[in-house]
Amino acid sequence: MPTIVVLDTSLSMARVADPSATPPATYLELAQRGLDGWLKHLEHKFKLEHVAFLTCSSQCHLGCSFTRDVSEIRQKLFQVEPEDASLIIMCAREIAALVHDVWGASVPVNIILVTDGGLGMGQFSLSHLLMEEGMELGAPFPLPFPGRWSVVLLTPTESHIFKAAQPIYQRFMEQSGLGGEVVGLDRELTAQSVEKVFADLSQTHYQHYVGTLHFGDKLSSPITLCPPPSKYKKVQDFDFVEAVISDDLDIKGFLTLADVASPPVVSRHLILPWSGQMQREEDGRTPTLCVFLHGAMKVESLCALVQVASDWFGIIFSCPDVKKKSSLMLSLFEPGSQPVPWLGNLRKLGPVSDLNVTNQNPFPVRGMSKPSYSANPVVWTKQVNLHSDVQKILRSARKLPDKTKHFYEELNRLKRAALSLGFHELLEAMASTLERECAVLPPTSEPDCHLHLTHAAQELKSSRVFDLDYVIQPVGSRHGK
Which one of 39, 153, 356, 391 has the fewest beta carbons within 10 angstroms of its own beta carbon? Predict the structure, then answer.
């Protein structure tokens, strides 16, 4: 996933950190050396990784936007000079704008912040700025995109500086909405200890995913996914879902792209053949399952349903990069057997040979219950909708007793809707309206009309009307023919 490197360039970074070095090294020089080793790791193993570079003091400056050219990032890194006071929270605004312009709000982003552990002084200290009154600087918390922080403090974990700074930076990450980790040096501050902390960071978060793609019992191929898939975590109403992609990806069958349409996915990954640490020139001429699947599915407009864990599925398909080039992509659904509603339970999909000419199209999968389209739901999004329903009841009331059935149906419909919405005042207002309507009835009206209106008004004022299951019944006529 894309990575943003934020380097603290405050004046405290110009302090001498390692007097034993020749010449003595400052905090900024040690940070540059550690980041250079991290960039070498990306250059060697993650050539497709997008990296951006920011510097932060009292102002945040964009050194280089997202690029795959590591040499450009390295050039900007070694041109950095110490500036003025530290104001780490200011970088959040620049990060949010940069990610929004390039990736939008759905792509996860890694953020690496490198600092000496200084928190600032007085009202501009990080601890003060994280308070409610300090948010006046306009930090866009929570950040409007997913991702994680990796805060590297250039100080030993046993030092009082690290112990004082760690909880503050933890609160900083929590308020940003991303979470992450704060790491320090496992021994005294030297160039070697700084290089080690960045090497550990690379081993933890920047490692290749290597797995095996299986197609039937006899065809398989080692593959890698770019970017590497991360662990899926989601808190639901009464459950916590956690899933990890397996090392074995098993193709279960094929579907047409028209049937799959545009399903909801949690991540997309480029599938590449894997042949060890380095890709050799002759690998391009070696037969591989990835090339076979890519060519076949592109011609036939198909996608492969693949199982990536015990209860986790995705699809593999040919995705065009430019006009004449395309790649093999993996889109991961949400964990579960029914991640795509119109495909139904993925575990119950069968071979196409089970269908015959008399069968209907299997998609979309129809549920067991059949909804009634004759239902007339109550929608009161506008005042005119409510006014129309009240007028409908009054029109039926003026035609009583001929419209007795329709009058009580509409009255009970309005009662249920009012109770469901908690609109109890409507029942009182409707009762008053029916009483007023009864009072202005013309002398030529039917006797039963007065009887039904009075009965309905009394029912709406009674306590039993607040029972959702209670149905107002018509009153018996006293003037039978």
Answer: 356
